[in-house]
Amino acid sequence: MARAVRSLDGKWTLLIVRDLLGGTRRFGELRSSLVGISPKTLTDRLRDLTDAGLVRREMFAEIPPRVEYSLTDAGRGVAPVIAALATFGATLPE
């Protein structure tokens, strides 16, 4: 369990995974959907998730360069955790 928590640590990490559950996204799309995240934080979290084997980074040799992020099989395995957190969050008082 400690390894799982370490992989998903950080304020924005679960939100990034949640957004990637919807499919492949580019950096700008992720940044737009995560209001308040700085580009550096997003870059750091994506790098951490890639290093943990949860996110795949695919770079295309185009001008300008295009980079897309998607979940690996292991990353998609986080879906039930996110669903459980969403269900739990809905029960909390505002």
Note the main sheet. Answer: 3 strands, antiparallel
What class would the helix/strand composition place it in? alpha+beta
Report the portion of residues in β strands.
Answer: 5-15%
Give the integer mean of the pLDDT values.
Answer: 93
CATH class: Mainly Alpha
- The helical percent reads 40-55%
Task: Name the features.
single chain; 94 residues; alpha+beta; Arc Repressor Mutant, subunit A; 3-stranded antiparallel sheet; 6 helices; 3 strands; globular
Q: How would you describe what is shown here?
A:
It is a single chain. With 94 residues, the chain is an alpha+beta fold. It has a single domain (2-91), classed as Winged helix-like DNA-binding domain superfamily/Winged helix DNA-binding domain (Arc Repressor Mutant, subunit A, Orthogonal Bundle), CATH 1.10.10. Helix content is 54%, strand content 15%. It contains 6 helices and 3 strands. A 3-stranded antiparallel β-sheet has the order 1-3-2. The chain is globular and about 50 Å long. It starts with a helix and ends with a helix. The mean pLDDT is 93.
Summarize the structure.
The chain has 94 residues and is an alpha+beta fold.
